[in-house]
Known about the structure:
The chain is of the alpha+beta class.
Amino acid sequence: MTRMMRQGTLPLDQAPFLMLSDPKMSVRAPEVRAARAASWYARTPYGLAILRHAEMGRLLIHPSLRQGSHNWAALNGVHSGAFADWWGKTILVTEGADHTRLRRLVNPAFTPKRVRTLMPAFEALTESLMADWIDTGSCDFMADFADPYAGRVLTILMGMPGGMAADILRFAADMGLGLGVTYKDCLPRIDAATEAMCALVQAAIDVRRTAPGDDVLSLLVAAAQQQNGLTEEELLNLGVMIVFAGVDTTRNQLGLGMSLFIEHPTQWEALAANPGLDLAAANECMRLRPTITWVTREAVEDFEFQGLPIAKGTTLHLMSESAGTDPKVFDNAPFDITARRGINYGFGGGIHVCLGRIVARNDMAVAYRLLSRRMTNIRPAGAPAYLPDSGNTGPICLPITFDLR
Ligand code: HEM
């Protein structure tokens, strides 16, 4: 037996192969489960997919890896334009001392203490959106709740007028096409949305310069005014990134959570009976059905991991859904919001761990808690539509019907 196999690692030519580039391939498919049972990694057309929880946790903090989306535009044959220029300078693709400096400057805007001050606004928002349809006993959960909720949460957080939420949602959705396989085909639309989003955020920054408030954008503006603080370009890039990164993720994750609760009505009832389970509910939804089903890393040097040689430039997809359902850690655990669970990687990990995770976890917890207080017996009211079940996923529409408590 080779040293590699003693470390539980199959040689590359014996490792399972997953067609990860096929949009029709589900990250929950039996072949992914079979690959995970056989090996902690699989080969893919992109490079490697990491399938188990322990290895994902270790690789998220591995010093030989960097965030893997930095050359996304170039890979798609796009070398300039508003989206490519912005994406190439976002915090997500920044590494080293610059990344540490950016996180040090923005982290204070996302502390648990600050997020606690936002909870009443998230509660009021949930109630006001629900009021529009609750008495009808049905809604499209995405259009009537998840979309406007995610958009308004961002305006609350950033201290922007609530009326901007619809534009933010629209621009972010079009910009999001820039991270899809049709990037080049949709270039004019993507670049126009990026320019519009930059103009919208710049206008909000200009307002905050003269009329600061107690919001994230004001804190970023203040960080630009301090010595060695943010440059003006970093300020705008970060403002746009926060809005972009926070909207689609939150709407998709809310919808995926609701789809789980529809399949597991006893869990919805458990939450209604014990509202203190709200954060556990948000976490458990992310464990089983994360919207970001993988995070990308790239090897910056040749290195060996558990006996497997990984060459510089190799792309690794760390599969959060597969890690979150890994029987070695979760023991085939079903959806159970009352269970004590270990960490899941729906917010990534390591230096690029989601900046907005405390906001997102709490705003989703508020939404599930207050919705469960009024709604029961939730069931589908027509066919839902979903994005492909790989990459960034979630419902496009989720028609439901329910009874009132
Ligand atoms: C349910 C909602 C959300 C999910 C599932 C999510 C998920 C993620 C994940 C997986 C990453 C890490 C990517 C990587 O390691 O490669 C990330 C990064 C990031 N997220 Fe989130 N996110 C959510 C909401 C938010 C919100 C609300 C904000 C802002 C208010 C936000 C801002 C960011 C930023 C700025 C980064 C980049 C951090 C860095 O590179 O240092 N996210 N997010």
